[in-house]
Write the structure tokens for this entry.
Amino acid sequence: MGAPAPPSIRAAEAAGPKPKADLDSFEVTQAIQDLGQSVPLVAQKRTLVRVYLGLSSGSLNVQGELRVRRKPGTPWIKVPSMGVAQLDASRKGNTLAQLRSRRDTLGYSLNFLVPAKLTTAGNAFLRLQKVREAGTGHPVQVNDPIGTRTATFVSSPPLRLRVINLRYTMGSPPITHAPTAGDLANLLSWLRRAYPIPNVVFASVTVNATAAAPFTSGQANAQIAAIRALDMAGGGDPRTHYYGFVSDGGFFMRGSAAGIPGTPDPATVASGPTGSNTWGWDNDGSYGDWYGGHELGHTFGRFHPGFCGESADDPSYPFTAGQLANADDAFVGIDLGDATLGFAPVALPGTAWHDVMTYCTTQWLSSHTYQGVRTRLAAEAALFPGAVPAGAASGAVLGDPLVHVSGVVNLTKGSATIEYVTPLPGPATPSPEPDETRAAIRAIRSSGAGQTYPVELKPDLCRLPDEDETALVDAIIDVPEDAASFELLLDGNPIARFTVGADPGPPPENVKLEQVAERGGIAEDVGDGAPWRLSWEDPIRTRAATEGDDNRTYVVQASTDEGETWITLAVGARRSEIGLDPSDFADAEKVRFRVLTTNGVSYSEATTRDLALEEEGVGN
């Protein structure tokens, strides 16, 4: 029977005629929705129920209660409204036009955040139970022609993302720049709120940019591609997307994805800038969130609609001027906010906000992009069904040796650079040969004989109309053991060359991790501002040797699971020391490092024991 109503409520109920309201419409939304509920609801994603009430006269502030259950016949669960709805007789009716002002303003609807445990896959049954005047608790009589509503939640895969923070140093005196913890938090939060995903399987690592600043996104993507190939050979999850994050503190790097894959391909990399610029509309402290959402959108097969200066590549985009809706405002976005970052929930009118794949202001995901990303995520997950075993990429084989090659091609000028040639110290598969391509890698043996491998050109996107057309080469090839050099061919003509270095020699020695000493309050770092330093001795090359003296470089990796999987901390490094960010290992009890000395096709390796992480640093 329940407890008797409090005296204040009993008094309110006896105070006179109840105010009356009509339940005009009911909407269940997560990021973007129309009243027909055409956008699928993602299971275990934050979900808002919006109830639209109308008054025949006057105005009223109300609160309410929603009832939710998962199966017929089971008890209803009570969900209180998230504050007060402002009702007014000027806002009533159940047509799309009559509902418009209420849908565009969160304070004009009764809003209910569905508990997470009720958003698992399957049906949920919803009904409005009680409405009362705010403050007095006086009951409001509701004419409810809708009754119980059914919402269906559909299982969807998470977004798996590794962010590579590219750290660089510029200026005189030199200043080191890297994305901040706030930049990362904003990116992670925005993706959770805007993308059609239940959550983000997220990791990040800070890596020194190999190219000298100011570098291009093409150079950044070449490094990201090399890092991803090494990580995958080190047991990484092949479903993981890689994104390079670059602070604009020293210079602004235009972002770019390395192609728009026509079929599911998590290996497509992208990179972009971040900083505090508002761009005239973004006031959350970091624009790297939606900018990253744009570039990652390309890696999920999304094109530019072509309304605000971006290229017009998506003729099927359905809405006017890159908006989230046409003039009828049928689709309205909802940003459910993030209390930990101080972001309040807000409605995003479909005619005032624009799709994230445009270059317009006020960006969010349209239903077109939202559903496109969701479809591609599901297709990517189907490529790798089941759990991915640690330490082994699905279907991988080991070549003799397998080498990853990444480079930047300027198609306008007919020039190129081979940025990285890296042997892969673990399972990998050669890249498939493209059906049509202008590019190839030719491995030239010590005898002078050559072997040619056609490779895909992955065009750099988001360039300005007057910028050169460029592309990324990102390929794994099974090269001859005695390869002495590599040529990058464009239309059969060599446009770049890489000479294999001297024999890697004995493994690095005396690999050690130490906190950077301070003198007079100034850290004696390795030029990158990092508080830790990993150093080693090269039996052949001393620390004082000049760069490029023997064309050998270092790969540095770390493992937090006793060598089952490895993440890359440096590729193409020439100094026998690198700076490390302790936050990259904040959740690990122990960490193991390995250093590979490589000439491009072979390597020698030194590995540390597992080092215990302590509050004051790393213990040896």
In short: The chain has four domains: 7-154, 159-383, 402-499, 509-619.
